[in-house]
Amino acid sequence: MAPRHLIPVTNMLERLNEEIRRRTYVVRIFPNAESCLRLVRALTAERHETWLEDHRYLNMDLLKEHKKKALRQAA
């Protein structure tokens, strides 16, 4: 069986869990449970902001430009 870190992960939730595992493994020892929760919350908030900013399934700007060109050609 291949080591876990060599298996490609495709599910978004699995990727987030892997990132949390990786980051908590780097820290190794937390002074208390709250500090671990702060790290996990910061990672999930960062991932949420990145997802909101980066993931565009349809780029509406390209669609607007296409419509403008079509209207210009029709006129």
Can you give a write-up of this model?
- The protein has helices at residues 12-27, 33-54, 60-74.
- It is 71% helix and 0% strand.
- It has 75 residues and is mostly helical.
- Helix 1 (12-27) packs across helix 2.
- The mean pLDDT is 80.
- It is rod-shaped.
- The longest helix has 22 residues, at 33-54.
Nutshell version of this structure?
The chain has 75 residues and is an all-alpha fold.
The helix content is: over 70%
Shape: rod-shaped
List the uncertain runs. Answer: none
Strand-pairing-aware structural class: mainly alpha
Distance between the termini: 64 Å
Mean residue pLDDT: 80
Q: What is the H/E order?
A: HHH
Main β sheet profile: none
Strand content: under 5%
Total E-strand runs: 0
**Individual helix count:** 3
Radius of gyration: 21 Å
Highlighted features:
75 residues, mainly alpha, 3 helices, 71% helix
Blueprint (SSEs and pairs):
Blueprint: H1 12-27, H2 33-54, H3 60-74
Helix pairs in contact: 1-2
